[in-house]
Structure formats: C-alpha cells, structure tokens
Fold:
Amino acid sequence: MNRSTALRLASASLAALVVASGTAACSSSSTAAAAGSGAAGGTYSVWDPYPQFDAGSAWVKLLDSCGAAAGVKIKRTGFDTGDLTNKELLAAQQNNSPDVLIVDNPVVSTLAQAGVLTTTKDNGIDTSAVSPNLLAAGQSGGDTYGIPIGANTLALYYNKAVLKAAGVDIASVKDWPSLTAALTKVKTAGKKGITFSAIGTEEGSFQFLPWYWGAGAQLTKLDSAQATDALSLWTGWVKQGYAPNSVINNTQTTSWQEFATGQFAFAENGTWQLANARKAGFDYGIIPVPGMTGGTAPAPTGGEFVTVPAQKQTGRYSVSDKLVSCLTSADNSYATDTTLSYIAPTSTVQTKQAAADPDLKVWVDAVKAAKGRTSDNLGTKYPKISEQLWTAVQSALTGSKSPQAALSAAQSAAAQ
Structure:
C-alpha cells in the first residue's frame, strides 16, 4: 500500500508523504537507561513509527524542543510499525517501556488490554478538544488511552475530463444509485469506471468499510441485509465491468496507479494521495464516499495515538504529560499534520488547515464523519472480524460465493 497510516497493521506508511531519511535506532541498554532516569530532568524515551525521519528532520526537532520545554532530554527511536507493537509488549514485560509511545490507532486497544498503557485519567492528558469520533479509536472499556496526533481517511477522487466526456455532472453523484448511473455513462463513453483496493488483507477491509458502514451495517453482524447490500454493490460493479477485475489484487498503491493513467472516472483512496493527485497531469476533484441513500458514509480513520506506557516510577508521568501536550498542541499539531498529510484531531486546527488549503475541506468533512475500526467497543475483536470481512469480499468478487453466502460464512467464523 502507499503509505496509508490507516493501515499500519499491514505495512509502514509515511515514506511516500515525506522525503525518506535514515532509520534511527537505539540499543536496549540505552533505552533502559532512558527509562530508568529520574522524573526531574534526565532523559525521557520516545518511540514512534516514523523511522524515515532522521535527526535533522522537523519531526525530531519538534521532539527535542518539547523535551527542552519540559526540562529533559529526548532519546527517540523510530520503528517500523510492523515491529513497534511487539517491541512494546516485550519492553513492558521487561519493565523497560518508553515514556511516550506513538502507535497506530487500531493497536491501542491491544496494548491497553495487555495492561501496557496508562489511561488519560492516570496521566492527566487533556483530550477535551479532540473530536469524539477520532478519540473513540483509543478507547476501550470506558477508558481513553492517549490522544490522536492526527487522522486520515478515504474519499473518492474523480477525473473531471472523463466525467465531462461521459456527460456526468459530479453534483448529481449523491448516493449509490447515482454513482452507479455515472459509472454506466462512463463505460458507455468508452472509459473505465472506478478502481479500489479489495485485496485479501487489512487494506481490503479498510477500503470496503465506507460502503459497509454506508449501508448501515455493523461489524458485530457481518451477515446482515445491510452488509449484503454493500458487498452486492462491489460485486455488481465488477460483474458489469464498472470496476476492473484487478481490484481483487489491488493494493491502494496499484489502485492509485490505475487512476493515474487518466482512464478511470473514480478512485477510492486516501488523504495521503493528495500530493500525487496534484502531479497526475489531469484535472481532478474529490467527493466523500456517499452513503447508500445519500450523505457522507463513515470511513475508517487512520493515524496514530500518542500514549503514555505504564511505568514503575509513576512520578515520571508529569513530564510525560508535558511532552504529549506539547506534541499535540494546536501550533505543533498544525505543522505535524501538514507534514504527514493528516487532518488534525481538533476542530480549531481543522479549520486552519482548510483555510490554508481549500483541497483539504473535503477531507476535513470526511474525517468528521469517520470512525475508528476498533470503535463500538470492538477493541481486540476487530482484527478477527476484519480478516473474515476481507475473506468474504474476496469470495464474492472472485465469484466463488454469493455475497450473502460469503458474509454468512464470515459471520460464523467470526462468532467462533
């Protein structure tokens, strides 16, 4: 996939957004020394999933400045996201956790259930300004674990020239019937309809969720009539040639590459493709993923949470709180989220982003309607549900099962 921080369980995700740099590293002994230093002054350790940022990057400079403001030095380590969860679980067993941990939002509930993280009540982090739908991704069992550093999500990019040639007014695309009608016109005009990622991984589930939730389906009941409606939509598009057979194996990267040929009317993709869209060589626009009967469908959120792992020396939390508050302050949030192609987690900064870049307005609206994959108290159940969901999508799109049969099998497997 192309650096979707929303999908860090599948792969790393920021290098396409910024200039890649050398990987920072530190030994376990240096981390241990950092974790063992005193609460007043000393060194505080920060682990993040941005290994592409080196010591001269704006991100690391921000960490250092927040440390200086708190009167401490920062020992920062950047891990690949695929390694970060296991590294932290092992560190917690060894009483060697970092003071601040920045981690992909679906992982928060896993670490919370393992007893690795402190709650915002424990560490005093103020989350009152954060949009509730974004904060929900870091909540489990009635508690909140950390604060989002930013969010990204999905929407529909469209090629203005392709739609114009097909006689489609984008303003008419407001729900599933009108979108399908537009695809019909595009195909009749000799162009291609829509591309997306339906690969059998978390990316496939991530891209299907706006349609799934947009039909009113719930992840606790994979075989509902609403879920069948959503999968039937995708299956119908492939059967009718409105979407290519390649979606079955498409990652978000290859799906974008298809759209970049200029032959497709629509592409479902994320905030992180905005820079590539501007270099595509054709006029484009963006609309939210429409719900089945209209409105903006809830799309899944990507992005990380800044958390405070549990420490034996609880006196360290006061400084950790200062570090987290500094990293997520309005001014720093604006700069960081602009760099990462994220939408800020607070309405104040979102407004500032949209004013500075009008192209971000549709993304701000999409993020406001979005929801976390582990929301609705799914927590650690989500990965198991997601696997069954993407399996059902694959079964239906390949024609091995009907949408209803595929989802019934998914529900039975998820219930076990």
User: Anything to note?
Assistant: Confidence is low (pLDDT under 50) at residues 1-39.
